[in-house]
Amino acid sequence: MARNREKTISEQIFDIKKQLVDKGYKLTQQREVTVRVLLEHEKDHFSAEEVFLLVKEQFPEIGLATVYRTLELLSDLQVVEKINFGDGAARFDLRSTDGSHHHHHLICTECGTVEEIMEDGLLRLEQQIERQYGFAVTDHRLDFQGVCRECREKQAISEQAAG
Fold it and tell me: Residue 126's closest CA among 144, 138, 143, 142?
């Protein structure tokens, strides 16, 4: 697990349940299985269909519409972030339960892999924005697009073979 490394999945589910209850919702069995799948595959940034296929393995009677509604609710409640990496599919990424927003992505334009960056070099910029514009930043997201190490190595090998 990249985020909340010190917390177990059960503890993270408890935190998410509290978030839902505080906003007037219950953590139903269907919602809990969906959250568990997201936690177990936190780095994978699954589409709703991919989440559904994994949820269905654990909860065979669940329908795709239920998973869609659950993901939309979790997105509305800011438990997950609905993101688009430019591949045409909405993907879902768990937000940190500790309120931090230090989470960015490296997106390979060749193979489509997504890697998370947990460091946040934008804190000084946020402070500057608040001082200069009186704007209190509550969240931000930064995605870097480029070519990953593996694809660059494959390109170098191809270029050497051709040359």
Answer: 138
Q: What is the DSSP string of 68-98?
A: HHHHHHHHHTTSEEEEE-SSS-EEEEEPPTT
Q: What is the pLDDT of residue 100?
A: 54
Reduced to 3 states (helix: H, G, I; strand: E, B; else coil), residue 111 is: coil
Structure tokens at 19: 């978030």
- Tell me, what's the pLDDT at 4? 42
**Are β-strands 143-146 and 90-94 bridged in parallel, bridged antiparallel, or unpaired?**
unpaired
% of the chain beyond a pLDDT of 90: 41
Q: How far is CA 17 from the centre of its chain?
A: 18
- Predicted pLDDT of residue 67: 95
Q: Are 106 and 144 in contact (CB under 8 A)?
A: yes
Residue 2 CA to residue 6 CA, distance in Å, equals 10
Buried/exposed code over 30-58 (b: 16+ C-beta within 10 A; e: otherwise): bbbbbbbbbbeebebbbbbebbbebbbee
Q: What is the pTM of this model?
A: 0.66
Q: Work out the average pLDDT over 8-16.
A: 90
Query: Do the bridges between strand 104-108 and strand 143-146 make them parallel or antiparallel, or are there none, so unpaired?
Result: parallel
